[in-house]
Amino acid sequence: MTKPFRCSLTIRSDTRYLAPLRDFVRAAITSASCHMDGRVITSLCMALVEAVDNAIVHAHGRRKSMPIGVSLLIKDKEVNLEVVDMGSGISHLSFAEPSPLSCGGRGLFLIRSVMTSVASSTGKRGHRLRMVLRI
Amino acid sequence: MNIDVKQQGDIQVMHCDGSLDADSVTAFKKVAYDLVGAGSTRFVIDCHNLTFIDSMGLGVLISLLRRVRQRNGDVKVAGLTDEVKTIFEITRLHRLFEVCSDWNAAVRQFGK
User: Fold this and answer.
1) What is the ipTM of this complex?
2) Which of A53, A56, A114 sits opposite B90 (nearest CB)?
3) Domains of chain A
4) Residue B11 is part of which domain span?
């Protein structure tokens, strides 16, 4: 692939958008004419859904009117995913694996398990979670 | 997500179709916990048509497992698609749950 491929969208904080977001990832990969195997696509879908789950539940407290920005950039051998919410951010990014019988706390662990790097920043425009996967 | 529950003896087989995620987890929990409330302790989660599961979906499966194991029951998962199998492996939940090839095999495992 020669040219970078970028697309972005804004959704409401509503879990109904989770399935369309997975379709968004698949459609972007197809449009970018970038071949990726199924496991890589699963990883990207999973990371995006977990990040948006966190935005809906933790950052916005399930207030559906709050916007969530999602962007995806495919360039060279790298996929960048970004999720922007209106929350105050994550004071300490913990990627620790929860105990097997723990019912929660797997979101960031899952993201970190499948992505090459994860970074969180907070500014005037809200909280931004950047996730990079090198293919 | 569509959930179709079929009873096989004292085993509840939950055939799940779609994705078990933050959007559907409440519906799954309602069906499963109602069955636990009615006395069921043996569950098979048929994932043959489950296309995706997120951390909240995994959380509700673990919660169900904890509830029924307190009563000497169990939850077995069956027919994992490649996508869902990958997620189970990453989270190592394939070690926590007994994973069977299909729901019939899972029902048979309860008899052993």
Assistant:
1) 0.89
2) A114
3) 5-134 (3.30.565.10)
4) 2-110
**3-class SS at B65?**
helix
Average pLDDT, chain B: 96
pLDDT in tens, B14-69: 999 999 999 999 999 999 999 999 999 999 999 999 999 999 999 999 999 999 99
- Contact state of A38 with B22 under an 8 Å Cβ cutoff: no
Residues of chain A with pLDDT under 70: 1-2, 91
Q: Which residues of A touch B88 (CB under 8 A)?
A: none
- Interatomic CA distance for residues A17 and A47, integer angstroms: 15
Degrees, nearest 5: CA angle A132-B1-B7: 130
Q: Which residue of A has its CA nearest to B26?
A: A15
**CATH number of the domain where residue B69 is located:** 3.30.750.24
CB-nearest partner of B52 from A22, A38, A103:
A22
Cβ of A18 and B93 within 8 Å? no
Question: What integer is the mean pLDDT of B100-110?
Answer: 97
Domain count, chain B: 1
> DSSP character for B10?
T
pTM: 0.92
Helix axes B82-90, A107-114, angle to 10 degrees: 110
